[in-house]
Structures are given as structure tokens and as C-alpha cells.
């Protein structure tokens, strides 16, 4: 039994201080450069691996905290440093989470270390669900997985889009439909190992924000993977499909529960961006003088800062609550995971917008980081479920009504 406490443990305080130092010294100085370059920051990822911020051990330590707060604290600090650079480290965890959630013990042991590699030889993973015609509506995936019994191989065909680390990852986890008639209940996840013929990167996207994180299409053409690459194994899939065909309830609810549990981690990143902008704007408002006084002496500015701080603290409470619920196995009865991601994402957009306003013209130009934080913040109301989809989840959870 882990009681909820707002008092951080000594380990959590140490973790926060260590990552704050990393964010301040290793991320802030290079953030603007990688935003402009819009490329994967390999030297930074290598450095993070060397310092122990990227890798299996780091993830295991953060996930291993029974209170669930360590991961939230870690992600807030990394995104405070820079959300794009943070995502260049965190994209891998999407693939890892899919393997952990759906894979057998043997599959986890085989694939998870390969997702990270090691210092000096870092690897990346990607998790590919979204398609050009299937974003929020993941039940309508067109990517197909066909089983070739003769060779015990799965053959994947289709196009994935908006994939973080897509085409450059060493391990891709691809969600594909095995039986399209069954919608999301007819889907399964497949590991595509490095060097597999038939998987290639399509278009690389030029983005508004988080530009140090690579986003691209993944094209699958007669892409063959061994039978053991089906996460969870064929027996389990066949059992699930026959249950669904018999009209019984089946496992896609489990996938939804996993998403709900990982959402606070996304919210924690949004929170980091919001805090960065708030702190910057607060300092600036005390320094900047107009009409012979600091601009913070005007209520119009001071009240903005009061609201920004209040929203950030409220977002953190929602993120920590949901992180704690996920770690302690509490059931999400009112979409608490969605609440945390939704509120933190919208807070990040609003707070960075207000920060630009407080800086005036200086907020609008690239010599200052605030416009970048605003561009970075916007993705948090879009990916991992848009704000509208989060509201649907909460509304359905609290009402029991299948709201459209
Ligand atoms: C930078 C970036 C990185 C990403 N990384 C990944 C990744 O690694 N892996 C991956 O699989 N995907 C990834 N995505 C995809 C992301 O999850 C989708 O963009 C997102 O789910 C929305 O899908 P869509 O873009 O097709 O929008 P749509 O689903 O077409 O939505 C368009 C608008 O309609 C609204 N809408 C849709 N349906 C409803 C409804 N029922 N009720 C009310 N409103 C609705 C949406 O909220 C939105 O405002 C990434 C996207 C971006 C931009």
C-alpha cells in the first residue's frame, strides 16, 4: 500500500535536482540550434545515454517508483529543458510501452534492450498507429497484417503517418489490422526489427514545434517479419479474435486502459513547457520597465502571472494524481488520465501564449525562447489523443453514455 503524499522522498528530490541540472546545462544551451536545424540531435542523445538519462536503466528506475511520481517529475524537468530535445529521448518509450503492454515476458526481454542500445551505440524505437485516414479513429486502420503459414511470417502492408522516429528507429512497433471487419478488436501489434526489407521512411514532416524530434511516414510494402514478432503471440491473438467473432467482450479495453495510464506522462511534459514560460515571464516582468515602473507593478500583468501559476499547479496536481493512480493500479473511473493530459496540454498553450504577451515584441522573436515554447506547447493538445478526444473519454466515463 503506497499512501499518496505531496512530500517528495529524498530519492525524488535528488532525481529532480539531477535532471534539472541536466536540463539547464545540456538542453537549454542547444535548444534553439536544434529547433532551427530540425534534425535528430544524435550528439545530444549520445550524451544523454552517457550521463544515464537515456536508456533502459533510467526507464526502469523511473517506472519502478511505486508512487508513480518519479516519472512525472523526471518528464517535467526534461520538457522544462526543451520539449523537442526531450521528445528525441522519449519517442523510444512509446515503442517500449507498446512492447511492455502487449508482449510476452520473452518478447520484452528480447526487444526492449534493443530499443535503447547502449552509450556509444544508441538505438531508437517508434510506435506506429496513426495513418493518413485514421488519426483519432484508430478503429479504421488500413494497414494489414497477413499470416503466411508456410513460412510462419507476418506480411505487413500499409502507410503510417506522423510517426515519431518513423523510419529512423531501430525497432518499429506497427499496429495493423488482422481482421478489418472487427475494427480495433481485429488489430494486433508487430515488432519490425532493424534492417527488415519492406519498411522504409516516407515523407519527413517539417513541423511547427518540437522540431528536434523526427516525425515521418513509415511505408510498409510486403514487409515480412517472423511469427515471433507478433506481440503477445499467435495463440493469444487467435483466442482474442474468436472471442470477438463469438460476440464476447475482448481485449481492446485493455489497450484503452494502457493509453489512459500513459497519458499523465504526456501531461507532465506539457507542464514542463508551461513552467519554463511562466518562470521566464515572471523574471522578465520584474525587470522590464515601462512608464517608469516594472511592468509587473501593473495588475494587468501581475494577474496574468497569478493565473499562469495557478493553472500550472492545478495541472501538476492532476498529473501527479493520475501518475499515482496508474502506478498503484487504481481504476480510472472518471478519465483521470485524460484529465491530466488535457488540462496540462491546454495550460501549456495558454501559459506560453500569455508569456509571449508579457514579453511583448521580445516574446515574438526567435532571440528569446518564449515563441519556441509556444510552438512546442501546441502539439500537446493534438498527439496522444486530441483535446476533443480526451473530453469524449471523460464525458463517457462520467456519464456511462456513448457520447459522439
Ligand atoms: C508531431 C507528431 C507526432 C506524432 N507521433 C505519433 C507517433 O509516434 N505514433 C502515432 O501513431 N501517431 C503519432 N502522431 C499522430 C497523432 O496521434 C494524431 O495526429 C492525432 O491522434 C490526431 O489524429 P489526426 O491528426 O488524424 O486528426 P483527426 O483525427 O483527423 O482530427 C481532426 C480534428 O477533428 C477532431 N475530432 C476527430 N474525431 C472527433 C470526434 N469523434 N469528436 C470530436 N472531435 C473529433 C479532432 O479532435 C481534431 O480537432 C503524431 C502527431 C504529430 C503531429
Helix content: 40-55%
Number of helices: 13
Ligand identities: flavin-adenine dinucleotide
| Weakly predicted, low-confidence segments | none
Strand order of the largest sheet: 4-5-9-8
Task: State the gist of this model.
The protein is α+β, with helices and mostly antiparallel strands and 404 residues long. Helix content is 54%, strand content 15%. The two termini are 38 Å apart.
3D structure, described in words:
The chain is an alpha+beta fold. It has helices at 10-37, 42-50, 56-64, 69-81, 83-102, 105-116, 234-245, 252-287, 299-327, 336-359, 361-364, 370-378, 387-399; strands at residues 117-118, 121-122, 125-128, 144-148, 153-164, 171-177, 187-192, 199-204, 215-226, 289-290, 293-294. A 4-stranded antiparallel β-sheet has the order 4-5-9-8, covered by helices on one side. It has a 3-stranded mixed β-sheet with strand order 3-6-7. Strand 1 (117-118) and strand 2 (121-122) form a beta hairpin. Helix 5 (83-102) packs antiparallel against helix 6 (105-116) and helix 8 (252-287) runs antiparallel to helix 12 (370-378). The longest helix has 36 residues, at 252-287. The two termini are 38 Å apart. The model has no long low-confidence stretch (mean pLDDT 95). It binds flavin-adenine dinucleotide. Residues 94, 127-130, 135-136, 162-164, 207, 215, 379, 382-384, 386, 388-389, 392 line the site of flavin-adenine dinucleotide. Residues 94, 127-130, 135-136, 162-164, 207, 215, 379, 382-384, 386, 388-389, 392 line the site of flavin-adenine dinucleotide (FAD).
Amino acid at each position: 500500500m503506497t499512501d499518496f503524499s505531496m512530500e517528495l522522498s529524498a530519492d525524488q528530490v535528488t532525481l529532480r535536482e539531477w535532471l534539472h541540472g541536466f536540463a539547464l546545462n545540456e538542453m537549454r544551451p542547444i535548444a534553439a540550434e536544434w529547433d532551427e536545424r530540425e534534425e535528430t540531435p544524435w550528439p545530444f542523445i549520445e550524451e544523454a545515454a552517457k550521463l544515464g538519462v537515456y536508456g533502459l536503466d533510467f526507464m526502469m528506475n523511473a517506472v519502478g517508483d511505486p508512487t508513480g511520481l518519479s516519472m512525472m517529475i523526471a518528464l517535467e524537468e526534461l520538457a522544462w529543458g526543451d520539449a523537442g530535445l526531450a521528445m528525441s529521448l522519449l519517442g523510444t518509450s512509446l515503442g517500449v510501452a507498446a512492447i511492455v503492454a502487449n508482449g510476452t515476458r520473452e518478447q520484452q526481454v528480447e526487444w526492449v534492450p534493443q530499443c535503447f542500445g547502449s552509450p556509444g551505440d544508441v538505438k531508437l524505437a517508434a510506435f506506429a498507429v496513426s495513418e493518413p485516414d485514421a488519426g483519432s479513429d484508430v478503429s479504421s486502420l488500413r494497414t494489414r497484417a497477413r499470416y503466411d503459414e508456410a513460412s510462419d511470417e507476418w506480411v505487413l502492408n500499409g502507410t503510417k503517418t506522423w510517426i515519431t522516429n518513423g523510419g529512423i528507429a531501430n525497432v518499429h512497433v506497427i499496429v495493423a489490422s488482422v481482421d478489418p471487419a472487427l475494427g480495433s478488436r481485429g488489430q494486433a501489434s508487430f515488432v519490425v526489427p532493424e534492417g527488415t526489407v519492406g519498411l522504409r521512411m516516407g515523407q519527413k514532416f517539417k513541423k511547427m514545434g518540437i522540431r528536434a524530434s523526427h516525425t515521418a511516414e513509415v511505408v510498409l510494402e510486403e514487409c515480412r517479419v517472423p511469427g515471433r514478432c507478433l506481440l503477445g503471440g499467435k495463440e493469444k491473438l487467435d483466442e482474442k479474435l474468436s472471442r470477438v467473432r463469438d460476440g464476447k467482450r475482448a481485449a481492446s479495453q485493455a489497450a484503452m486502459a494502457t493509453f489512459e495510464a500513459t497519458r499523465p506522462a504526456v501531461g507532465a511534459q506539457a507542464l514542463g513547457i508551461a513552467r519554463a514560460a511562466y518562470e521566464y515571464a515572471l523574471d522578465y516582468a520584474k525587470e522590464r520597465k515601462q512608464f517608469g515602473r516594472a511592468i509587473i507593478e501593473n495588475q494587468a500583468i501581475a494577474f496574468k502571472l497569478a493565473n499562469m501559476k495557478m493553472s500550472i499547479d492545478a495541472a501538476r496536481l492532476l498529473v501527479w494524481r493520475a501518475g499515482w493512480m496508474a502506478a498503484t493500479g487504481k481504476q480510472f473511473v472518471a478519465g483521470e488520465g485524460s484529465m491530466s493530459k488535457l488540462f496540462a496540454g491546454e495550460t501549456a498553450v495558454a501559459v506560453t501564449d500569455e508569456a509571449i504577451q508579457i514579453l511583448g515584441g521580445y516574446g515574438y522573436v526567435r532571440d528569446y525562447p518564449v515563441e519556441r515554447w509556444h510552438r512546442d506547447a501546441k502539439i500537446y493538445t493534438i498527439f496522444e489523443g486530441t483535446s476533443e478526444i480526451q473530453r469524449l473519454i471523460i464525458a463517457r466515463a462520467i456519464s456511462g453514455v456513448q457520447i459522439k
